[in-house]
């Protein structure tokens, strides 16, 4: 007997900036991600790989979903998807972010996409902001560092909530909002300029800007929850947190304290605001230690209190092991931390840890006691397209199988988990590195790191496997 509830939402997830392409089509404005290269927001994402500067060489073609969405959604339907998580590119709707009225052509595109989902009985789950804020707002206001963005985001959220109120029920506010506190976060999440750094990975950190930007975003997200529920009281609006749960390397109490601090700063700092409507007790200490003074708007506290979320969503790829010791080998993951001797890592140093998902689900449910959904999980890997156009990816099946078993165990523990959208169900551009070669999909897209290829789609072995998983509601793994 399957332990998954009968109406469990099985599906996959993507983001506009990584899949759509067509960056300048249909009146779309440039987003930060369209020019995201060395952190200066000046160079286009298409670069050659010849110098060190080109370590990150994303392209703007994505998977050309803009022109392939029908075919892609049909393939999702073939797998039996109940839900498809995607994001709306803010810049298709408000090209600079400052317009008074939305861009009709952009709105029409998502009408077509949602209609296609509905036609196939797939529930859209829509992220309002997935690393794709208008570049203009970065240039003019230094992104979320400026409170003015709250008003612009409200206008954008209102426009899409109104337009799609009968097509979309499930919404997420900001993708991985807590990543603002991680090394790449300033640009990705906050759209804050990073002049002065040479490489993408060298973030010039300014805690005042970072915590203020995050505060502005938390307020904007709370506004979205308030406005959304006014427009349609049936809306289910969730947050989205990057879960990289920390473990202490040793049972040394100092490591345990470090670990606890990591959970506080990286998970509960944002999670508490979004679920409980106020900052946790330790926020004051964090601000004081960083010499940060948060500028509060008159209504902010009230808005945070009222604009809490209906459910908690998160991404989960890896766990993080922390220690005070300096004689332990580093993990190699962009998150930092040290190697966990009990875990294997993928080709990018990400520690693969299915049990950690059960741990995460229990920790979050224990603290927040609201429904949970895993909206990202998957394995980035180098796949090979064989001559007969098959792709054999047993490693991906293995990874997903173990994580699904872990969810099953959490359900048996009593956790209220209502869905799972595997990340990058169709191959797309990596957010972290800009590569196409780091593939996650059940569906292979014939394109390279530079956006060259036929863009034909091919079913991987995992495609047929996931179809069976969904058909048996997680029983046949
Ligand atoms: C999450 C992002 C996604 C996604 C995923 C995988 O942090 O929300 O956008 O890309 O990570 O990361 P990467 O693309 O770097 O492999």
TrEMBL record:
Broad EC category: hydrolase
Pfam families (UniProt xref): Glyco_hydro_1
Record: active site: 376
UniProt keyword Hydrolase, yes or no: yes
PROSITE patterns, A to Z: GLYCOSYL_HYDROL_F1_1 (PS00572), GLYCOSYL_HYDROL_F1_2 (PS00653)
A GO MF term: 6-phospho-beta-glucosidase activity
Keywords, in A-Z order: Glycosidase, Hydrolase
InterPro entries with a match to the protein in the record: GH, GH_1_N_CS, Glyco_hydro_1, Glyco_hydro_1_AS
Keyword Calcium: no
SUPFAM superfamilies on file: (Trans)glycosidases
Protein EC: 3.2.1.86
Family listed: Belongs to the glycosyl hydrolase 1 family.
Listed name of the protein: 6-phospho-beta-glucosidase
Protein's organism: Breznakia pachnodae
């Amino acid at each position: 007997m399957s332990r998954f509830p009968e109406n469990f939402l099985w599906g996959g997830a993507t983001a506009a900036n990584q899949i759509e392409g067509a960056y300048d089509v249909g009146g779309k404005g440039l987003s930060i991600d369209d020019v995201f290269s060395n952190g200066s927001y000046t160079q286009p994402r298409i670069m050659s790989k010849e110098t060190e500067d080109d370590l990150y060489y994303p392209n703007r073609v994505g998977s050309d979903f803009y022109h392939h969405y029908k075919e892609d959604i049909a393939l999702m339907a073939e797998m039996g998807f109940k839900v498809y998580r995607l994001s709306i590119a803010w810049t298709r709707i408000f090209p600079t972010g400052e317009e008074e009225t939305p861009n009709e052509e952009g709105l029409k595109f998502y009408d077509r996409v949602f209609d296609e989902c509905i036609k196939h009985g797939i529930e859209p789950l829509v992220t309002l902001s997935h690393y794709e804020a208008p570049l203009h707002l970065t240039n003019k206001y230094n992104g979320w560092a400026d409170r003015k963005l709250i008003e612009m985001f409200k206008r954008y959220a209102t426009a899409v909530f109104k337009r799609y109120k009968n097509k979309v029920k499930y919404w997420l506010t900001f993708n991985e909002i807590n990543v603002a506190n991680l090394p790449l976060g300033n640009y990705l999440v906050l759209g804050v300029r990073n002049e002065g750094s040479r490489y993408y990975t060298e973030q010039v950190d300014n805690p005042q800007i970072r915590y203020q930007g995050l505060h502005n975003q938390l307020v904007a997200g709370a506004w979205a929850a308030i406005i959304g529920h006014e427009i349609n009281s049936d809306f289910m609006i969730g947050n989205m947190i990057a879960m990289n749960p920390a473990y202490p390397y040793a049972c040394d109490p100092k490591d345990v304290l470090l670990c606890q601090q990591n959970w506080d700063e990286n998970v509960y700092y944002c999670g508490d605001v979004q679920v409980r409507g106020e900052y946790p007790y330790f926020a004051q200490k964090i601000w004081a230690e960083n010499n940060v003074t948060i500028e509060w708007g008159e209504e902010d506290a009230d808005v945070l209190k009222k604009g809490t979320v209906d459910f908690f969503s998160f991404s989960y790829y890896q766990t993080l092991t922390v220690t005070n010791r300096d004689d332990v080998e580093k993990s190699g993951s962009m998150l930092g931390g040290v190697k966990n001797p009990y875990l294997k890592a993928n080709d990018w140093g990400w520690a693969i840890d299915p049990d950690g998902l059960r741990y995460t689900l229990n920790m979050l449910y224990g603290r927040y006691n609201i429904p949970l959904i895993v909206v990202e999980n998957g394995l980035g890997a180098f796949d090979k397209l064989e001559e007969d156009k098959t792709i054999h990816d047993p490693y991906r099946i293995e990874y997903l199988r173990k994580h699904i078993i872990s969810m099953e165990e959490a359900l048996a523990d009593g956790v209220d988990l209502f869905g799972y959208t595997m990340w990058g169900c169709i191959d797309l551009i990596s957010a972290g590195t800009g590569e196409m070669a780091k593939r996650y999909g059940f569906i292979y897209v014939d394109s390279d790191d530079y956006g060259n290829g036929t863009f034909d789609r091919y079913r991987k072995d995992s495609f047929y496997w996931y179809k069976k998983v969904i058909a048996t509601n997680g029983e046949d793994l």
